[in-house]
Design brief:
heterodimer, A: 263 residues, alpha+beta, two-stranded antiparallel sheet, 8 helices, 29% helix, B: 190 residues, mainly alpha, 0% strand
Chain lengths: 263, 190
């Protein structure tokens, strides 16, 4: 009994003593932090995605505060947050265009050359023969290398390929480097026409390997009234500056590899 | 004479980092730049010396009379944690650049095994003499600082050396630490 009481006394006493000492020191050594910096930190998304190239939102707030960064350097910033941050800094808000990531492959019925069994991750399977088990060398392998990079839960695997939810995607660009096929590109959020193919293999082999792959028939190019679609070899490319979301190309494509963003 | 013996033994023969392999975390972590490593050495020295004074007094005048010596590890950890907090506040106020460059390694002094080892060894070896305990702590801190500063010096030079590609960065640092450790074993014959 005595031991228990002594223990309680010692530990409790020391705890209280040190607590008081530290709180006294806390008041005495108080460092003034500019309230501006504090409010910047509060407004920032706080997910530490690293999209701005800094260690996290705290470091970005520091740089912003000291004038080493612009509000728009944060790729995740929404128009409202942009406005609030600019208000705090006392500068004019610069319009940002929301960009989202898109996986340039929407082919779900692929021809396989072999079955891959091994370490999960496209980066290991992409090193094998033919750059992965699928016959198409350009498409999504669906082995989830990119998924851990997304801090916003915008990526999911659907029918063997990665799909990015445009609503959840914040455009931090962290997933881009993880794709060994360089399939992920940034597209404007408000332009919904997406060309879901990345192959340059040409008509014949594309036809054999994929049910929807672009064969370079140029029908979409001819149908586009604004001249937004050009050909990069046998692959259609879209110029979002000219695109007006009319969707004529979607209806025209005989292979159905152009989507309206709703996958 | 005894004081010199204790000091030299803690600093060189039983060097905490290179012979006893304690406190490796800051040894690798903050050894990239000389000014941070000196700052770290000073912070560790302060924590080690002050905590050995406090723990010595607590042990002999609180824990022993009350018969609760079994609490010593908990109490010592508490003392160290409190001191580290104190040092952290102090640095934040008076040396923000150092505070920033030390980063996570400053609060990690709390769990730095070298500090806890010093106070635990004090209880074991020098429970009857405060002066010897403090000398031991000073020796240990000097040994830590010596190892850290030497290692930082070597690593700074290695930055400019023509190292084979696979060894650049941490691998060569590990090899360096190993060689330094072997060199310090030479003091065992003192």
């Amino acid at each position: 009994m005595n031991t228990i009481l002594s223990t309680l006394f010692v530990m409790g006493g020391l705890g209280v003593l040190f607590g008081l000492l530290l709180s006294y020191a806390g008041v005495k050594f108080k460092t003034e932090v500019d309230p501006k910096l504090e409010s910047l930190k509060k407004v920032l998304p706080g997910v530490n995605c690293g999209g701005c190239g800094r260690a996290g939102c705290g470091a970005f707030a520091d740089d912003l505060f000291h004038g080493n960064a612009e509000v728009t350097d944060c790729p995740v910033v929404t128009p409202e947050v942009n406005q609030t941050l600019s208000d705090i800094m006392g500068v004019e808000a610069v319009e940002t265009k929301r960009m989202v990531a898109f996986v340039k492959c929407i082919g779900t019925e692929c021809k396989y050359l072999y079955k891959y069994q091994g370490v999960e991750g496209c980066r290991s399977s992409a090193r094998l023969a033919n750059g992965g088990s699928k016959a198409c060398t350009a498409g999504c392998i669906g082995n989830k290398s990119c998924m851990p990079a997304c801090k916003f839960g915008a990526m999911r695997l659907e029918n063997g390929i990665t799909v990015i939810d445009s609503e959840k995607c914040t455009g931090c660009k962290m997933c881009i480097d993880f794709c060994p096929k360089k399939l992920i590109e940034m597209v404007p959020y408000d332009k919904i026409i997406r060309i879901g193919c990345n192959t340059h293999d040409g008509a014949k082999s594309t036809r054999e390997n994929c049910t929807i792959g672009c064969i370079g028939c140029k029908i979409c190019m001819k149908k586009c009234e604004n001249g937004a679609i050009t050909m990069d070899g046998t692959l259609a490319k879209i110029d979002y500056k000219k695109c007006n979301n009319c969707g004529a190309c979607i209806d025209a494509c005989p292979r159905k590899c152009i989507s309206n963003g709703v996958i | 004479m005894e004081f010199i013996m204790v000091f030299m033994s803690a600093a060189l023969v039983n060097n905490f980092v290179l012979t006893r392999s304690l406190g490796i975390c800051p040894f690798i972590g903050v050894s990239k730049r000389m000014d941070t490593s000196i700052g770290m050495s000073v912070a560790v020295t302060v924590v080690m010396v002050v905590s050995s004074v406090i723990t010595h007094l607590l042990y002999n005048f609180v824990l022993v009379p009350l018969g609760v010596t079994f609490l010593y590890i908990v109490v010592f950890v508490l003392v160290i944690a409190c001191l580290v907090q104190f040092v952290e506040m102090h640095l934040k106020k008076y040396s923000p650049p150092l505070y920033k460059s030390l980063g996570i390694f400053l609060p990690l002094i709390t769990t730095n095994c070298a500090v806890l080892a010093v106070v635990l060894l004090n209880v074991e070896l020098f429970y009857d003499s405060l002066a010897l305990a403090v000398t031991h702590a000073f020796g240990a801190a000097a040994g830590f600082a010596l190892a850290l500063v030497l290692f930082t010096g070597i690593r700074e030079r290695l930055e400019y050396a023509d190292i084979p590609k696979p060894f650049r960065g941490l691998p060569i640092a590990m090899i360096t630490a190993g060689l330094m450790s072997i060199a310090f074993w030479g003091f065992t014959g003192l």
